[in-house]
Amino acid sequence: MASTISPAAAAAALASIATPTTLVGQHQLYTRIRLATPADVPHIHKLIYQMAVFQNETHLFTATESSLATTLFNSPPFQSFTVFILEVSSNPFKNIHSPAFLPIERTVLVDHVAADPEAETFKSGVVNENDDDDDDVTVAGFVLFVPSYTTFAGKPGFHVEDLLVRECYRRKGFGKMLLSAVAEQAVKMGFKRVEWSVLEWNVNAIKFYEEMGAKVLTEWRVCRLTGDALEAYGDANY
Amino acid sequence: MASTISPAAAAAALASIATPTTLVGQHQLYTRIRLATPADVPHIHKLIYQMAVFQNETHLFTATESSLATTLFNSPPFQSFTVFILEVSSNPFKNIHSPAFLPIERTVLVDHVAADPEAETFKSGVVNENDDDDDDVTVAGFVLFVPSYTTFAGKPGFHVEDLLVRECYRRKGFGKMLLSAVAEQAVKMGFKRVEWSVLEWNVNAIKFYEEMGAKVLTEWRVCRLTGDALEAYGDANY
């Protein structure tokens, strides 16, 4: 009831819109979305594995740190395969040098910060300026995307290949932050489309994507040629 | 009935497997798949428009020759947006210089060559060596594809964005030739996947793709963010 809120508490609540302030029971979390570097490969590799576990497809997981390192960083950012890393910290981030993409920093108030059982494993590998080994920067998720092409518009777009937020950081809006960062970059570059895939039974995800403004194309199906069926085309006599 | 075929005709039919020979009522057609060049832009533009007509989506067609020319040729072939052009001719092709991709030439026997009402419009713009203005090389179709990424494999793939064979050249196996050329290139480059989309009610296309070895992913749906819904993300305060 409004009458039980003191003027001071009301002022604090209003102030928190502009400058988040920790209220009782809430925790302040600093988040940053930045471009991945080769130093992130061990984390990216583990995140992809967690995605394979989540999708019950570990039998399809053959990526190695080496295969990622040799394929992900061969082009300037946004011209081919591009990875954004989501980091979280309980302290403000120190600056990193990233001329191709200004990192997106947000401070969020969360009701509850679950203990991160893999905090050590996912300690961020980025060397900060004036590093004093006192950082608690942790990799919480990633998104991998590639340029696509909208022929009808004669303009590029982005296709989001994969997005994952680690279990203990879910339900905090981080998935939306990663996807929004891709959309924002698309607009900046004059791209006309962002596309991704969703499992048709994942109604929560579909609702969430529709709230973000996306349309689900119900009539289209993806055709995939892989494995031996693809290799057969390597023989010129197919 | 077999008994009505003369030994000479049988020999000719067998010979045609190795070296196609024109039989009664059949026509020999030379085909070539080659990389597109900026000189092909007017044809690519018209082919995309024909696709918009075919899909009843001309209201979405905003591509211009200029938008295609400025976006399609900024990277070496296969590293970003790539276009293969399918040409047909009633005469053997003259050589073209194409170090990045050896053109794929096939001679096909077709039962019937329909008159091409747009032969002049689609006269191929490639200047052949020793050009004597006597060519009848015509652009019959195209495929536009871009690299994608298979995270579980840690390897690239190709996503086929669009494929079109002009009306009077359909039902001759040319669509398969274009798609096979992309698959062959994927294998050559060590890529692990070729994907494309199909309308779920297009049962003939689905049957055809399955015969080519592709699997239709029935559970996945494509989410698309475009137009004003996408532009909204250009405002950092979304």
UniProtKB/TrEMBL annotation, chains A, B:
A UniProt-annotated Pfam family: Acetyltransf_1
Alphabetical keyword list: Acyltransferase, Transferase
InterPro entries reported for this sequence: Acyl_CoA_acyltransferase, Diverse_Substrate_AcTransf, GNAT_dom
GO-annotated molecular function: N-acetyltransferase activity
Ranges where the N-acetyltransferase domain occurs: 81-237
PROSITE patterns: GNAT (PS51186)
Signal peptide bounds: none
Source superkingdom: Eukaryota
Protein name, UniProt field: N-acetyltransferase domain-containing protein
The species this protein was found in: Populus deltoides
